Fold:
Amino acid sequence: MKSILGIGNALVDILATLDNDKLLQQFNLPKGSMQHVDEAVSSHIWNEIRTRDVQIVAGGSTSNTLNGTAGLGMPSTFIGKTGKDELGRLFADDQQAHGLQSHLLHSPQATGHCTVFITPDAERTMATYLGAAIDLVPDDLQPDMFDGYDYFHIEGYLVQNPDLVRRAVTLAKSKGLLISLDLASYNVVEAHKTFLADIIQHYVDIVFANEAEAAVFTGHPPLSAVEKLSHHCQIAVVKIGDQGSLIQRGTEQHIVPACPARAIDATGAGDLYASGFLYAHAIGLPLAQCGVMASTVAAKVVEIIGCRIDKSTWKSLRELTIEH
Structure:
């Protein structure tokens, strides 16, 4: 089985289900976005939601994706940085419990966390305090960390540290890894479009974007956007929610319908879509089937709160690939 290495912000998710959008408005959080907040705002948010029914679970975009690839049976290793605190231990324990290997480095700062507001329309809006995650620096990455892997996955959220991103993809490319990038959030793309375009053009093989991210990056609606993206990488993927996804490699294009699901929380849907796609690609499935597998995994995660699919569901998902 081919293996995957990934790097990302090591975060713990605080999942809060809301009855309406009032709290989003209170903290000036555009629905569906990811906003960085400082420690003071993060503490204020926590004081507002601490009496609610919240869940605290390990998260982070790349970590979620690798949790999925590991669940599907693909050897998976995560690089990140946490604090030496209770949330950091929770994050490390979660990785071990779900079969991930880790290069977890430590910082004197508190472990980063992301408050995920889930509204009745199943949309998720994130307020992220990076904490220790921001202390991951280029010098933390050593060439031997990249030895022995086939794929390298990176999240767009890391672009707040462009030197780290550039070193990561340079090392991955020098080792011959196939590199995938998730654009992460439309506001991330807005703020770092030039840098992302350069990285994609010179290093990235597979790009994952949702409809909003693709529109900001290309200036085009989904069908045109996936075609534009495919000029800059081997495989371009544009996810369009309950309408499915568009996948293009060269002149080969596929429209993959979404799998039916009773959605209650969209948190991690894009991350787990990438899990299914990369796993299917790694075992050599045709491009359209990679999309089907990705949509199937994404459908499973939106039916639960949070991103941690249970072992029996992973088993049934692995069995689907055997049928192909």
